[in-house]
Fold this protein.
Amino acid sequence: DLAMICETHGGHNVAAVIVEPVAGAGGVFPPPKGYLERLREICDQHGILLIFDEVITGFGRMGTPFASQHFGVKPDIFTAAKGMTNATVPMGGVFTTAKVREAFLSG
């Protein structure tokens, strides 16, 4: 659990956490209520980037454009792919908050 890792090793030693908002391996497993919200809180407390892998959940598959909107949790970065071109062309994308984008641009 992330809170225990941060407590034991220090949150400053964790750069980022990447999760699928809905686990797709072995089935479709939505997170327990409050899980993503708590993950966001822990990341914010320790300055850890929260990354959502939205390859499976992106582009309307959750009834909203992205799972982050469905769950009301804003990641710092999210990835998307298959749904970008309806799987007709191999393409993926990485989307970030303005703060993360500025960090990349400023070097």
